[in-house]
Structure to design on (313 residues):
């Protein structure tokens, strides 16, 4: 579905919460705090050191934006002022929108949503028809930043699946414009429309999927492409990974070849998503390449590990 062409601000400033202070959580918190839609952004994580690193990382990222002239020093200071941290999920009870950004593990995400379901404000009214989402009456929206896990299964861990929606930010969050919006089987249309509006208001481009299917839009197409590059390498179509990447860069005009892209994403992440696609769709065309599996088994996870398909210093 195409996003609305016009940008409309929410009727009031929103209190955002972010669960998880890793790379994605910190990036999401930075983007939310930099928005005129936010009154506050509370980042939670059980690790206080992760919370400290996330704030330091946000400050560093915003400083780079100032040095490049993308934002003013005043805008940076305002964004930092909106951010607070806490090791306790309970402190999210007053938030209007909570974005979960814990690791890509279905069991962990379901546990998190079951806890959030008992912490957040209750829903006083259920949206009906075309009525816009009212955060005071309808309660908070619970969003999951997942790249492949079923929104429907995550939402089933709550007592009110109508307010659970998939909001898939791309990495690195402050740079990448796209955000996928994915409804679960029972997600209320008002929650989807409110999510699209929020994504517009924070300066991103929302693209709403019409159904909760493995991989959604981006990874349903991207991951098999990367997987096929590993098959080409393994089967000797070209034994030189640089040649495969160069062929795809110059032949299709993409900025980065598939094997370099896989290293940047993380080979473990690519493998995890391929397994979700293979299991969820039941088609052997999504079978993870044995070479990709072998690299992950050897802890050659990509740039973050110092080596993957390529070596990094």
């Amino acid at each position: 579905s195409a996003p609305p062409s016009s940008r409309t601000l929410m009727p009031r400033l929103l209190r955002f919460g972010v669960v998880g202070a890793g790379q994605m959580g910190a990036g999401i918190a930075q983007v939310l705090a930099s928005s005129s839609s936010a009154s506050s952004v509370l980042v939670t994580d059980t690790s206080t050191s992760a919370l400290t690193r996330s704030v330091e990382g946000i400050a560093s990222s915003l400083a780079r934006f100032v040095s490049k002239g993308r934002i003013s020093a005043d805008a940076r200071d305002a964004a930092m002022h909106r951010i607070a941290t806490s090791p306790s999920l309970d402190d999210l009870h007053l938030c209007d929108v909570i974005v979960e950004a814990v690791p890509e593990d279905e069991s962990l995400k379901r546990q998190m949503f079951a806890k959030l379901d008992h912490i957040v404000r209750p829903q006083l009214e259920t949206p009906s028809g075309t009525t816009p989402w009212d955060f005071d009456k309808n309660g908070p929206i619970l969003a999951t930043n997942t790249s492949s896990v079923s929104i429907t299964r995550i939402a089933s861990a709550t007592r009110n699946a109508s307010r659970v929606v998939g909001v898939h930010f791309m990495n690195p969050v402050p740079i990448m414009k796209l955000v996928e919006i994915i409804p679960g089987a029972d997600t209320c249309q008002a929650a989807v429309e409110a999510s699209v509006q929020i994504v517009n208001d924070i300066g991103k481009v929302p693209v709403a999927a019409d159904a909760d299917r493995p991989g959604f839009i981006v990874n349903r197409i991207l991951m098999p492409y990367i997987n096929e590059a590993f098959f080409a390498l393994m089967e000797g179509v070209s034994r030189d990974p640089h040649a495969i990447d160069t062929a795809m860069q110059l032949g299709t005009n993409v900025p980065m070849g598939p094997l370099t892209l896989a290293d940047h994403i993380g080979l473990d992440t690519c493998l995890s998503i391929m397994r979700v696609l293979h299991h969820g769709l039941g088609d052997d065309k999504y079978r993870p390449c044995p070479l990709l599996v072998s690299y992950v088994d050897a802890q050659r996870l990509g740039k973050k590990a110092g080596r993957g398909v390529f070596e990094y210093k």
